[in-house]
Design brief:
- The protein has 350 residues and is of the alpha+beta class.
- The chain has three domains: 6-45 and 281-324; 48-114 and 222-268, no CATH class; 123-213, no CATH class.
- The protein contains six helices and 17 strands.
- Strands 1-17-3-4 form a four-stranded antiparallel sheet, with no helix packed on it. Strands 2-16-6-5 form a four-stranded mixed sheet, with no helix packed on it. A four-stranded antiparallel sheet has the order 12-7-14-15, with no helix packed on it.
- The longest helix is centred in the C-terminal third of the chain and has 22 residues, at 303-324.
């Protein structure tokens, strides 16, 4: 596998194979749809990665490219990861938020949010475009006002949920004051650079950065997790010595982290390609070709032929995964008898 950018896909045999020119807007649309379907069909090579983060609070908002957290290590211990249904089982109570403790924790799913950081008091929203060339583009922000009522405004002759903010240099500020913890939705156009979002407290006027929306983001959405017991660095306390970061063997220790560094492995979220220099999420050119052929035939109601091409795409991705991550390599790290010595396991039976 080699990384592919949009320009390389356009220059391949795919446009001729699917009958859509590389300059036709439908080509990028079909490519992104094929990538999304393939990404949801399995954990393919290149669609997951190891990620090291500095954890300073129990609520973790993950970067844009994190689809789901597959593994989480805190203080050398791999923690159980639970989905959104975990809390709602009978007789289940999550551990209380702890202090200097290095075990007994879980990572619980807390859904999706549109901002990286919440605010605690009623605030206006202020947007700073990183490039003045984005002035005039409109961003729709949605949420509840300070009375808890959903914001609705008249846009021309149409009522919409939320209010449109027209980007301007250096910034534009919302008309409405929004209640904590923050926005419920954001819709933005493609921009030439990032858009920085700040909350402006209604009582003090203090600004706090709450989000950074990338140029290609149209509907910002970030995964959020709750770490039930955040271990802390506690000086020379013996029980927490293992919380000191020592790197992962290749990446050095994160020296600027004020608390605990967690090692994670995450499944990546698709970032659609827009311009020729954008990297494709799926790097297997053959799989992309078969998947895009399948979509074109599906639109023509050639369902059987579409399925043949789709299965070919999946076979190519499976072969690639086996080549780069051989199934005979060790992936399970567990002692044969768990943590108990053999004598304890057989005690009372011999």
């Amino acid at each position: 596998m080699s990384r592919l950018n949009l320009a390389q896909v356009k220059a391949s045999s795919i446009p001729a194979a699917i009958g859509i020119g590389a300059c036709d807007p439908r080509f990028i649309t079909t490519l992104n749809e094929a990538q999304e379907r393939l990404a949801n069909a399995g954990k393919w090579w290149g669609t997951y990665k190891r990620l090291r983060i500095c954890v300073t609070a129990n609520c973790i908002t993950w970067p844009r490219d994190v689809k789901v957290v597959e593994g989480f290590i805190q203080c050398g211990l791999s923690l159980p990861i639970a989905n959104a249904w975990f809390d709602f089982q009978e007789n289940v109570r999550s551990p209380a938020v702890g202090g200097c403790q290095c075990d007994g924790s879980k990572l619980l799913d807390r859904g999706l949010v549109c901002q990286n950081r919440d605010f605690s008091t009623p605030s206006k929203i202020r947007l700073y475009p990183a490039s003045a060339t984005d002035a005039g583009k409109r961003v729709l922000i949605q949420g509840l006002d300070q009375n808890g009522v959903a914001v609705r405004t008249l846009d021309g002759t149409t009522w919409v949920d939320g209010e449109y903010l027209t980007l301007a240099s250096p910034f534009v500020t919302s008309t409405f004051t929004y209640s904590a913890p923050g926005l419920t939705g954001v819709q933005k156009p493609l921009t030439n650079s990032r858009v920085l979002a700040y909350s402006v407290a209604a009582d003090s006027g203090n600004e706090t950065q709450i989000a950074v929306w990338d140029s290609s983001e149209r509907n910002p959405s970030y995964r959020r997790s709750y770490l039930t017991n955040l271990a802390q660095l506690c000086g020379d306390t013996a029980s927490c010595n293992s919380c000191a970061d020592e790197g992962d063997g290749c990446v050095p220790a994160m020296e600027d982290c004020s608390n605990v560094v967690a090692d994670t492995i995450v499944r990546l979220e698709l970032v659609p390609v827009v311009v020729d220099s954008d990297w494709c999420f799926i790097g297997n050119i053959g799989a992309l070709k078969s998947a895009m052929k399948s979509l074109v035939k599906e639109d023509k109601n050639l369902q059987q032929e579409a399925m043949v091409d789709w299965m070919q795409a999946i076979r190519l991705l499976r072969s690639e995964l086996d080549a780069y991550s051989p199934p005979d390599q060790i992936s399970v790290n567990v002692q044969v008898m768990g943590t108990a010595p053999l004598g304890a396991v057989l005690g009372g039976f011999v």
